[in-house]
Every structure is written in C-alpha cells, then in structure tokens.
Design goal:
With 181 residues, the chain is an all-alpha fold. Helices cover 82% and strands 2% of the residues. It has helices at 2-16, 30-83, 87-137, 143-171; strands at residues 19-20, 25-26.
Length: 181
Amino acid sequence: MKVLELLEEIEDLVDEAPGLPLTGKIMLDAEEVFQLVREIRLALPDDVQQAKWIRDERDRILAEAKAEYERIIREAKKQADYLVETDDITLRATKLAEQIRQDAETHAKVMKMRTYDYVDKMLFDMQGKMDELNMKYFGEMYSNLEKTFADINEILVSNREEMKILAYKTQNEGPTQEIEE
C-alpha cells in the first residue's frame, strides 16, 4: 500500500536525521518531509476507495439477499396455488407456504446479520488501521492529517453504528402477515 511505504520513508528520514547535541532533537529537510506528506495526501484516496468498495459490497450482498427472499416467496406462492385443489390439500398447502415463508424470512435475516457482521469487521479493521497510522506517524507535527484521520474515523464509527442499528432492527423484526393470495 503506497501510504504505508511513504510513511516508512518518513520514519527512515527521522531515523537517519542528524541530531542536535544536548537537545534530543533532530534536523530534517522540510522540503523532503513536505514532499512525502503531499504524496501521502495523493495516495489517501485509494484507502477511501477501499472503504467505498466495502460499502458497495455490503449493498450488493443485501440486494442479493432480498432478491433471494423474494424468489423464495414467489416459489412458495406458486407451490401453494398448485396445491389448492381440495380442502385437505389447501390446508396442507397453507401450512407448507407458511413454513416456506418463515424459512425465507429466517434465511434473509441470517444473510443480513452475516452481512452486517462482515461489514462491521471490515470497518472495525479499517478503523484500527487508521488509529494505528495516526498514533504511529502523526503527532502534533501534522494536525491537518490528524483531522483527516479523525474525520474518516467518525465516518467509520457512524457506518458501524448504522450497521448495528440495521442488525438490531433485523434481529427484532416480527414475521410479516399472511401470504397475499
């Protein structure tokens, strides 16, 4: 990852910089440091793109789960219509349709929960990486970058909270009403 390589270059600059006697401070070429910081800023959008990809992947997985749920419901309705030839078959078909609907809802809920867990883990990992980068390489010297990391972190926290809310809502959804005829 380009940003990590650039940060390692900054670390090498600091390690190799000549020290000032009796002060514990070092001398750095400001232009060289600023050039590396500019390159980091240019490379950061790639990391932001990765976060966008994660969000898009979450949306895709949720859309697939919804399509699968709707397909199962359609199949259940077709099967129920086919079985409605006598009263006895109608009762069995109604019970079977209800079971299929409940199974579909359970399956959709499980798929949603897995998606939320996956996205939450990805966001948590990215949040941890951003915190690690922030603490390791940018102290008081880079307040702009620190603000950028804080803003990204807030977005990640917000996204994780959104996932938790969606997961909570999904977990607590009641079964839908009877199948429409």
